[in-house]
Design brief:
The complex is a heterodimer of chains A (about 190) and B (about 290). Chain A contains six helices and nine strands. With about 190 residues, chain A is α/β, with parallel strands linked by helices. Chain A has a five-stranded mixed barrel with strand order 2-3-6-7-9. Chain A starts with a strand and ends with a helix. Chain B is α+β, with helices and mostly antiparallel strands. Classes of the chains: A alpha/beta (about 190), B alpha+beta (about 290). The interface between A and B is large, with 46 and 54 residues. Bound molecules: iron/sulfur cluster. Iron/sulfur cluster sits at the interface of chains B and A.
């Protein structure tokens, strides 16, 4: 079993291959549509964005005394962030993206150029994934529970499948070419 | 079991808790069945992860997915206009008590009231009947699956082949975004609005529901086979389990029209029903 320590360095992510199953130990931040917009339009951004492991997720959080606790934290559809992610990768050198459904060719290229991988989490496996997270803080709280940037320390967070690697390969593309045959057969 | 009369508002909170924390049994069996025919290793582990999560959610009493969706309600039987207020209050309480993720926002300003309410929310469909009880069903709809909804107004000449083509391309082009294996709700006929409504209502059927119309049943089975042979697989990562079920609902339409709508449900095909009896006691289920 492969465990990646986050923040990860470029060499580690470049060594990952399509279809490998990995778990993450270390820091993870969340970000969805609004967080991306805010990060790209702000002068001052939280330092955790640099070299981050960015999880496309809008968790359900509860207050547990003074601390925040994630009770459900599965991936959200990554394609919604397609138009912003390449710039995020270039600007902040995001090393790992965790989400579901995959991302566009532009993002795949930015991943290759900058050294970043996309890991697919099991969509909807929110309770299992939340169990691997400890909340360490929140930024941009005014964006609301789903859209804020949550900061976590992860322990054996996964399973995650290497679905887009740092060399321009994508499991979604491989699957897509097979799936397209079915679409064509019936058109 | 002794049932103590409870308010509609309380029933709504309990109903949302049941729907979000416990996957209906028939959906669980459909997932097990999918795992039994799955030959792709990654796909098999995705299904295993899903079932693991379902068990944890039920055991811990937590929402199985962080996207608790927007609740769509179906009210039938005997009721009066006050029921809307009770449902709204129930949704507000459930949001903080369960808790549910506050998902509703103004469509343009994106302002979030924090209680899953707002103009037009929650969506409630009413069907009065002569029964002396009230039945309320909730379908929590997550955005991943809901965003893949499509409606097309085909030409009658496109026929069944056109209908098939539209359904196949809609499900497959959605890729991993709606968290496959999905349940596919299809509406065929009616007017445009009714067609989309039927597609969603089809998702209320249990996965072991048998369509009594032979033509529709055959079409459901054929689509099920084609879609699962496509190779899309769980989460779009490849595999043999792309859909858990295809449900078709039809209605008569204008002679110049052929509307078709597809509404998907993710593997977390949540639903629950409460029947509130005349004496105020209630019975919950996921039938
Ligand atoms: S599509 Fe369904 S299972 Fe997937 S994240 Fe949305 S609500 Fe959860």
């Amino acid at each position: 079993m492969i465990t990646i320590h986050s923040p990860a360095d470029e060499r580690t992510v470049r060594n990952l291959e399509l279809g490998q199953v990995v778990h993450i130990d270390g820091t993870i931040i969340t970000g969805r549509d609004e967080m991306h917009m805010r990060a790209l339009s702000s002068k001052n951004v939280p330092k955790e964005l640099n070299f981050a492991t960015l999880f496309h997720c809008g968790p359900i959080m509860i207050r547990d005394g003074k601390e925040w606790k994630a009770i459900a934290a599965g991936p959200t559809t990554s394609a919604r962030m397609d138009t912003m992610e390449a710039e995020m990768i270039e600007r902040f050198k995001i090393r790992i993206i965790i989400g579901k459904g995959g991302m566009s060719d532009d993002v795949l290229k930015a991943m290759k150029d900058n050294g970043c991988v996309y890991l697919a989490a099991i969509g909807g496996a929110a309770v299992s994934l939340a169990e691997c997270l400890r909340c360490t803080g929140i930024e941009w709280e005014e964006l609301g529970m789903a859209e804020a940037m949550w900061k976590f320390t992860a322990k054996q967070f996964g399973p995650l499948v290497v679905a887009m690697d740092a060399h321009g390969n994508s499991l979604y593309k491989n699957v897509g070419s097979k799936v397209n045959r079915t679409i064509k057969d019936h058109s | 079991m002794i049932s103590i009369p409870e308010s509609v508002e309380d029933a709504i909170v309990n109903l949302l808790r049941l729907a979000n924390t416990k996957l209906p049994e028939d959906v669980g069996w459909a997932l097990e069945a999918a795992a039994s025919w799955e030959t792709n290793e990654i796909a098999y582990s995705q299904l295993g992860g899903i079932m693991d999560n379902v068990k944890k959610a039920e055991f811990m009493g937590r929402p199985m997915c962080q996207d608790t969706g927007v609740p769509v309600f179906y009210v039938s039987g005997k009721f009066d206009a006050s029921i809307e207020k009770s449902i709204r209050n129930g949704v507000r309480r459930a949001t903080s008590e369960i808790p549910l993720r506050p998902n509703t926002v103004h469509p343009l300003t994106r302002e979030n009231p924090g209680d899953n309410l707002g103009d037009g929310m929650p969506v409630i469909h009413y069907t009065p009947t002569d029964d002396d009880h009230t039945e309320i069903t909730v379908l929590p709809k997550g955005a991943g699956a809901e965003n893949m909804t499509k409606l097309v107004m085909l030409n009658p000449a496109d026929g069944t082949a056109g209908v098939k083509k539209f359904i196949i391309s809609t499900v497959l082009e959605a890729g991993g975004r709606p968290c496959p294996p999905t349940v596919v709700g299809v509406g065929i006929g009616g007017t445009s609005d009714m067609c989309v409504k039927m597609a969603k209502e089809a998702l209320l059927r249990p996965t072991d529901h048998v369509n009594t119309n032979d033509d529709e049943r055959k079409l459901e089975e054929e689509l099920f086979t084609i879609l699962n042979a496509s190779g899309l697989g769980p989460m779009g990562l490849g595999g043999d389990s792309t859909v858990l079920r295809v449900h078709i609902k039809t209605a008569y339409c204008h002679t110049a029209s052929l509307p078709v709508a597809v509404n998907l449900n993710c593997w977390a095909a949540r639903r629950a029903t409460v029947r509130i009896m005349k004496d105020g006691t209630s019975r919950y289920g996921q039938w």
